[in-house]
Amino acid sequence: MWHAGERAVQRRTGQQERAEHTGRSIGRTIPPVAARFLTERRTIVVGAADPAGRIWATQLAGPPGFVRADGDHAVLVAARPAPGDPLAEVLAGPAEVGTIALDAAGRRRMRLNGRSEPDGPDGLRITAEQVYANCPKYIQRRSPRELPAAEPTATAGDRLTLPRQLAVAAADTFFLATAGPDGRVDASHRGGFPGFVEVLGPNRLRWAEYAGNSMFMSLGNLELDPAAGLLLPDWDTGDALLLTGRAEVDWSDPSAPVVDYTVLRTVDLTHAVPLTWTAPEFSPALPHPISRPVR
Protein backbone atom coordinates (compact mmCIF):
# COMPACT_ATOMS: atom_id res chain seq x y z
CA MET A 1 0.00 0.00 0.00
CA TRP A 2 2.67 2.49 1.03
CA HIS A 3 5.72 3.44 -1.01
CA ALA A 4 9.20 3.76 0.48
CA GLY A 5 8.95 7.49 1.20
CA GLU A 6 5.68 7.16 3.09
CA ARG A 7 7.00 4.25 5.14
CA ALA A 8 10.17 6.18 5.98
CA VAL A 9 8.16 9.12 7.34
CA GLN A 10 5.77 6.84 9.23
CA ARG A 11 8.76 5.17 10.93
CA ARG A 12 10.43 8.49 11.69
CA THR A 13 7.30 9.77 13.43
CA GLY A 14 6.43 6.48 15.12
CA GLN A 15 3.09 6.30 13.30
CA GLN A 16 3.42 2.97 11.47
CA GLU A 17 0.61 1.24 13.37
CA ARG A 18 -1.81 4.12 13.03
CA ALA A 19 -0.95 4.51 9.34
CA GLU A 20 -1.76 0.85 8.71
CA HIS A 21 -5.14 1.37 10.38
CA THR A 22 -6.08 4.62 8.60
CA GLY A 23 -4.74 3.31 5.31
CA ARG A 24 -7.57 0.79 5.19
CA SER A 25 -9.90 3.64 4.32
CA ILE A 26 -8.20 4.09 0.92
CA GLY A 27 -10.12 2.37 -1.86
CA ARG A 28 -10.36 2.30 -5.64
CA THR A 29 -14.14 2.69 -5.82
CA ILE A 30 -16.37 5.71 -5.24
CA PRO A 31 -18.97 4.96 -2.54
CA PRO A 32 -22.50 6.39 -2.99
CA VAL A 33 -21.94 8.91 -0.18
CA ALA A 34 -18.80 10.15 -1.95
CA ALA A 35 -20.66 10.38 -5.26
CA ARG A 36 -23.30 12.58 -3.62
CA PHE A 37 -20.62 14.71 -2.02
CA LEU A 38 -18.92 15.33 -5.37
CA THR A 39 -22.17 16.27 -7.10
CA GLU A 40 -22.71 19.09 -4.58
CA ARG A 41 -19.31 20.70 -5.05
CA ARG A 42 -18.66 24.00 -6.85
CA THR A 43 -14.87 23.62 -7.09
CA ILE A 44 -12.25 20.91 -7.28
CA VAL A 45 -8.46 21.22 -6.94
CA VAL A 46 -6.34 19.28 -9.45
CA GLY A 47 -2.60 18.65 -9.20
CA ALA A 48 -0.36 17.35 -12.00
CA ALA A 49 3.16 17.58 -13.41
CA ASP A 50 4.04 19.68 -16.44
CA PRO A 51 6.37 18.37 -19.20
CA ALA A 52 9.40 19.73 -17.31
CA GLY A 53 8.47 17.70 -14.23
CA ARG A 54 7.29 20.73 -12.25
CA ILE A 55 4.28 20.06 -10.05
CA TRP A 56 1.34 22.47 -10.11
CA ALA A 57 -2.07 22.64 -8.45
CA THR A 58 -4.99 24.51 -9.98
CA GLN A 59 -8.69 24.95 -9.29
CA LEU A 60 -11.64 24.14 -11.54
CA ALA A 61 -15.17 25.42 -10.93
CA GLY A 62 -18.72 25.03 -12.15
CA PRO A 63 -22.34 24.73 -11.00
CA PRO A 64 -23.36 21.87 -8.71
CA GLY A 65 -23.10 18.68 -10.75
CA PHE A 66 -20.10 19.79 -12.80
CA VAL A 67 -18.22 17.05 -10.90
CA ARG A 68 -19.99 13.70 -10.83
CA ALA A 69 -19.20 10.03 -10.49
CA ASP A 70 -19.24 7.97 -13.68
CA GLY A 71 -19.96 4.55 -12.22
CA ASP A 72 -17.91 3.27 -9.28
CA HIS A 73 -14.45 3.89 -10.70
CA ALA A 74 -14.36 7.27 -12.46
CA VAL A 75 -15.29 10.92 -12.14
CA LEU A 76 -16.37 13.35 -14.83
CA VAL A 77 -15.39 17.02 -14.49
CA ALA A 78 -17.17 19.44 -16.83
CA ALA A 79 -14.31 21.96 -16.79
CA ARG A 80 -10.71 22.34 -17.92
CA PRO A 81 -8.02 24.88 -17.00
CA ALA A 82 -8.14 28.24 -18.76
CA PRO A 83 -5.51 29.28 -21.33
CA GLY A 84 -2.37 30.41 -19.54
CA ASP A 85 -2.94 28.03 -16.64
CA PRO A 86 0.20 25.85 -16.38
CA LEU A 87 -1.98 22.71 -16.44
CA ALA A 88 -4.09 23.72 -19.47
CA GLU A 89 -1.94 21.83 -21.98
CA VAL A 90 -1.15 19.03 -19.53
CA LEU A 91 -4.82 18.16 -19.01
CA ALA A 92 -5.51 18.37 -22.75
CA GLY A 93 -3.96 14.89 -22.84
CA PRO A 94 -3.61 11.91 -20.49
CA ALA A 95 -2.05 12.74 -17.13
CA GLU A 96 -1.63 11.41 -13.61
CA VAL A 97 -3.59 13.71 -11.31
CA GLY A 98 -4.34 14.20 -7.65
CA THR A 99 -7.61 15.90 -6.75
CA ILE A 100 -9.24 17.20 -3.61
CA ALA A 101 -12.84 18.37 -3.30
CA LEU A 102 -13.45 20.66 -0.32
CA ASP A 103 -16.75 21.53 1.32
CA ALA A 104 -15.68 24.59 3.28
CA ALA A 105 -19.20 25.30 4.59
CA GLY A 106 -19.55 21.78 6.00
CA ARG A 107 -15.87 21.22 6.84
CA ARG A 108 -15.57 18.09 4.71
CA ARG A 109 -13.04 17.01 2.10
CA MET A 110 -12.43 14.10 -0.22
CA ARG A 111 -9.37 13.09 -2.20
CA LEU A 112 -9.34 11.13 -5.43
CA ASN A 113 -6.13 10.33 -7.29
CA GLY A 114 -5.90 8.63 -10.65
CA ARG A 115 -5.50 8.91 -14.41
CA SER A 116 -7.08 11.84 -16.23
CA GLU A 117 -8.09 11.91 -19.89
CA PRO A 118 -9.90 14.60 -21.89
CA ASP A 119 -13.68 14.14 -22.03
CA GLY A 120 -14.82 16.14 -25.02
CA PRO A 121 -13.41 19.61 -25.68
CA ASP A 122 -14.09 21.01 -22.21
CA GLY A 123 -14.07 18.17 -19.70
CA LEU A 124 -12.05 15.49 -17.93
CA ARG A 125 -12.62 11.87 -17.07
CA ILE A 126 -10.54 10.68 -14.11
CA THR A 127 -10.19 6.95 -13.48
CA ALA A 128 -9.85 6.44 -9.74
CA GLU A 129 -6.80 4.71 -8.26
CA GLN A 130 -7.09 6.06 -4.71
CA VAL A 131 -10.29 7.34 -3.09
CA TYR A 132 -10.56 8.45 0.52
CA ALA A 133 -12.11 11.02 2.83
CA ASN A 134 -10.16 13.22 5.24
CA CYS A 135 -11.05 14.47 8.70
CA PRO A 136 -12.35 18.06 9.04
CA LYS A 137 -9.21 19.31 10.80
CA TYR A 138 -7.90 22.76 9.87
CA ILE A 139 -10.72 23.63 7.41
CA GLN A 140 -11.96 27.21 7.83
CA ARG A 141 -15.74 27.34 7.52
CA ARG A 142 -16.93 29.69 4.76
CA SER A 143 -19.76 29.71 2.22
CA PRO A 144 -19.64 30.55 -1.50
CA ARG A 145 -21.22 33.57 -3.16
CA GLU A 146 -21.80 33.91 -6.90
CA LEU A 147 -19.75 36.24 -9.08
CA PRO A 148 -20.54 37.21 -12.66
CA ALA A 149 -18.56 35.01 -15.04
CA ALA A 150 -15.41 36.66 -16.40
CA GLU A 151 -12.62 35.51 -18.68
CA PRO A 152 -9.60 34.34 -16.64
CA THR A 153 -6.21 35.88 -17.32
CA ALA A 154 -2.79 34.50 -16.36
CA THR A 155 0.41 36.34 -15.49
CA ALA A 156 3.60 34.32 -15.02
CA GLY A 157 6.68 35.21 -13.02
CA ASP A 158 9.68 33.74 -11.24
CA ARG A 159 9.25 35.28 -7.78
CA LEU A 160 6.61 36.65 -5.44
CA THR A 161 5.95 40.34 -5.88
CA LEU A 162 5.53 42.38 -2.70
CA PRO A 163 1.70 42.36 -2.99
CA ARG A 164 1.79 38.60 -3.41
CA GLN A 165 4.15 38.20 -0.45
CA LEU A 166 1.62 40.09 1.66
CA ALA A 167 -1.22 37.93 0.32
CA VAL A 168 0.63 34.71 1.15
CA ALA A 169 1.44 35.99 4.64
CA ALA A 170 -2.28 36.65 5.19
CA ALA A 171 -3.46 33.28 3.82
CA ASP A 172 -5.36 30.84 6.02
CA THR A 173 -5.54 28.02 3.47
CA PHE A 174 -3.53 26.50 0.65
CA PHE A 175 -3.49 23.30 -1.36
CA LEU A 176 -0.35 21.22 -1.89
CA ALA A 177 0.38 18.90 -4.83
CA THR A 178 3.23 16.36 -4.74
CA ALA A 179 4.19 13.23 -6.67
CA GLY A 180 5.33 9.76 -5.66
CA PRO A 181 8.08 7.60 -7.14
CA ASP A 182 5.63 6.01 -9.59
CA GLY A 183 4.55 9.40 -10.93
CA ARG A 184 1.20 9.33 -9.14
CA VAL A 185 0.17 12.77 -7.94
CA ASP A 186 -1.52 13.65 -4.66
CA ALA A 187 -3.33 16.87 -3.73
CA SER A 188 -3.88 17.85 -0.11
CA HIS A 189 -5.11 20.74 2.02
CA ARG A 190 -3.36 22.91 4.60
CA GLY A 191 -5.05 25.39 6.90
CA GLY A 192 -3.99 27.70 9.72
CA PHE A 193 -4.36 31.14 11.19
CA PRO A 194 -3.08 33.95 8.94
CA GLY A 195 0.69 33.90 9.21
CA PHE A 196 0.95 30.11 9.34
CA VAL A 197 2.80 30.38 6.03
CA GLU A 198 5.92 32.43 6.73
CA VAL A 199 7.27 34.54 3.89
CA LEU A 200 11.06 34.62 4.15
CA GLY A 201 11.67 36.39 0.84
CA PRO A 202 10.42 36.61 -2.75
CA ASN A 203 11.37 32.96 -3.34
CA ARG A 204 11.19 31.38 0.11
CA LEU A 205 8.28 30.20 2.24
CA ARG A 206 8.03 28.09 5.37
CA TRP A 207 5.18 26.39 7.19
CA ALA A 208 4.76 23.98 10.08
CA GLU A 209 3.07 20.65 9.44
CA TYR A 210 0.23 20.03 11.86
CA ALA A 211 -0.78 16.56 13.09
CA GLY A 212 -2.99 14.78 10.55
CA ASN A 213 -4.14 11.28 9.64
CA SER A 214 -0.67 9.71 10.03
CA MET A 215 -0.57 8.47 6.44
CA PHE A 216 1.93 11.19 5.44
CA MET A 217 1.19 10.96 1.74
CA SER A 218 2.46 14.47 0.99
CA LEU A 219 5.54 14.28 3.22
CA GLY A 220 6.20 10.73 2.00
CA ASN A 221 6.26 11.99 -1.58
CA LEU A 222 8.59 14.85 -0.58
CA GLU A 223 10.90 12.32 1.06
CA LEU A 224 11.70 11.04 -2.45
CA ASP A 225 10.90 13.99 -4.73
CA PRO A 226 11.05 17.65 -3.59
CA ALA A 227 8.90 18.95 -6.47
CA ALA A 228 5.72 20.54 -5.13
CA GLY A 229 2.97 22.87 -6.29
CA LEU A 230 0.93 25.27 -4.17
CA LEU A 231 -2.46 26.80 -4.88
CA LEU A 232 -3.52 29.77 -2.75
CA PRO A 233 -7.11 30.83 -3.47
CA ASP A 234 -8.17 34.42 -2.94
CA TRP A 235 -11.48 33.94 -1.14
CA ASP A 236 -12.41 37.63 -1.54
CA THR A 237 -11.98 37.97 -5.31
CA GLY A 238 -12.08 34.52 -6.94
CA ASP A 239 -8.46 34.95 -8.08
CA ALA A 240 -5.74 32.41 -7.33
CA LEU A 241 -1.97 32.22 -6.98
CA LEU A 242 -0.23 29.12 -8.35
CA LEU A 243 3.33 28.30 -7.34
CA THR A 244 5.71 25.56 -8.32
CA GLY A 245 8.98 24.85 -6.58
CA ARG A 246 10.91 22.55 -4.31
CA ALA A 247 10.14 21.59 -0.73
CA GLU A 248 12.59 20.41 1.92
CA VAL A 249 11.30 19.01 5.21
CA ASP A 250 13.13 19.89 8.44
CA TRP A 251 12.87 16.86 10.74
CA SER A 252 14.81 18.35 13.67
CA ASP A 253 11.73 17.61 15.77
CA PRO A 254 9.99 14.53 14.26
CA SER A 255 6.80 15.44 16.11
CA ALA A 256 6.68 18.90 14.50
CA PRO A 257 8.19 18.88 10.98
CA VAL A 258 8.63 22.17 9.16
CA VAL A 259 8.65 22.59 5.38
CA ASP A 260 10.99 25.05 3.67
CA TYR A 261 9.74 25.89 0.19
CA THR A 262 11.68 27.48 -2.67
CA VAL A 263 9.49 29.20 -5.26
CA LEU A 264 10.67 28.60 -8.83
CA ARG A 265 7.73 29.84 -10.90
CA THR A 266 4.51 31.73 -10.18
CA VAL A 267 1.23 32.21 -12.06
CA ASP A 268 -1.41 34.75 -11.04
CA LEU A 269 -4.88 33.74 -12.24
CA THR A 270 -7.50 36.47 -12.16
CA HIS A 271 -11.13 35.28 -12.22
CA ALA A 272 -9.93 31.76 -11.50
CA VAL A 273 -13.40 30.82 -10.20
CA PRO A 274 -16.73 32.71 -10.45
CA LEU A 275 -17.11 32.68 -6.66
CA THR A 276 -16.20 34.67 -3.60
CA TRP A 277 -16.62 33.40 -0.06
CA THR A 278 -17.82 34.63 3.29
CA ALA A 279 -15.39 35.57 6.06
CA PRO A 280 -13.81 32.50 7.67
CA GLU A 281 -14.85 30.80 10.85
CA PHE A 282 -11.52 29.33 11.91
CA SER A 283 -11.23 25.64 12.66
CA PRO A 284 -11.27 24.83 16.37
CA ALA A 285 -8.47 22.33 15.70
CA LEU A 286 -5.94 25.02 14.74
CA PRO A 287 -2.96 25.44 17.05
CA HIS A 288 -2.99 28.91 18.55
CA PRO A 289 -0.37 31.12 16.84
CA ILE A 290 1.55 31.73 20.07
CA SER A 291 1.92 27.96 20.57
CA ARG A 292 3.85 27.47 17.34
CA PRO A 293 7.57 26.82 17.77
CA VAL A 294 9.86 29.62 16.69
CA ARG A 295 12.41 28.41 14.12
UniProtKB/TrEMBL annotation:
InterPro entries named in the record: Split_barrel_FMN-bd
PANTHER family, alphabetized: FAD-BINDING, PUTATIVE (AFU_ORTHOLOGUE AFUA_6G07600)-RELATED
Composition skew (Basic and acidic residues), residue ranges: 1-23
SUPFAM superfamilies: FMN-binding split barrel
Domain of life: Bacteria
Organism: Kitasatospora arboriphila
Name this polypeptide is given: Pyridoxamine 5'-phosphate oxidase family protein
Renumbered residue ranges of the record's region Disordered: 1-26
